[in-house]
Specification:
Mean pLDDT: 91
Shape: globular
Number of helices: 5
Order of helices and strands: EEHEHHEEHEHEEEE
Strand content: 25-35%
Helix content: 25-40%
Low-confidence stretches: none
Radius of gyration: 16 Å
Number of strands: 10
């Protein structure tokens, strides 16, 4: 049975920028770690905004001038299937992507039962729906040592209207104060 993991970058005060990611730009060692975190996932579930941000990796301009860690992330991202949940997006620009207009918990349960590789969900709004439906098995956070809650349009990374009990499975420091935390959600 495949696991569903919510993987996200997060500011130290618990937010993600709503369309603004310059506060969380890659640090030394971050792309290698992120690639290793993302490698096991065979399918990525995205909302429209998250997909539009990540679709850069389908065909990055000047990829030959990027570092080998960025190039490897691009290959990992391109290899995964992507499902984009959107009522407004009409066309996807990635070869292995398709659009679903509605998030349906039962379809995700069936995917978890039928897929061989684990599933990643990105974006706090979509992940919040999955968390409320009891679908998320793990939360994986890449914490950037910066606070953004009062300076940018932001969205809380975790839903504010639910209590989650988490077991720490793994942690790692890297870059200049970045932290990777991997938790299992207790049932």
């Amino acid at each position: 049975m495949a696991k569903l993991s919510y993987v996200t970058i997060m500011s130290l005060d618990g937010y993600i920028g709503d369309g603004h990611y310059d506060w969380g730009g890659p640090m030394e060692g971050s792309m290698t770690l992120i690639t290793n975190v993302m490698r096991p996932f065979g399918t990525y579930l995205y909302g429209r905004k998250n997909y539009e941000t990540m679709s850069f990796w389908e065909n990055p301009p000047n990829i030959e001038k990027m570092g080998s860690d960025d190039q490897e992330f691009g290959r990992v991202w391109q290899a995964a299937e992507k499902i984009v949940y959107s009522k407004t997006l009409k066309v996807v620009t990635s070869k292995k992507a398709r659009i679903e207009s509605n998030f349906e918990a039962q379809k995700i349960r069936e995917m978890k039962t039928n897929l061989a590789n684990d599933i990643c969900i990105g974006g706090p709004t979509l992940a919040g729906q999955a968390i409320h439906a009891g679908l998320v098995d793990e939360v994986q956070l890449l914490i950037v040592p910066v606070t953004i809650g009062n300076s940018l349009p932001t969205i809380p990374v975790l839903p504010k209207d639910i209590t989650l009990k988490l077991d720490l499975l793994e942690y790692q420091t890297f870059g200049k104060g970045w932290l990777y935390l991997r938790y299992r959600i207790q049932n």
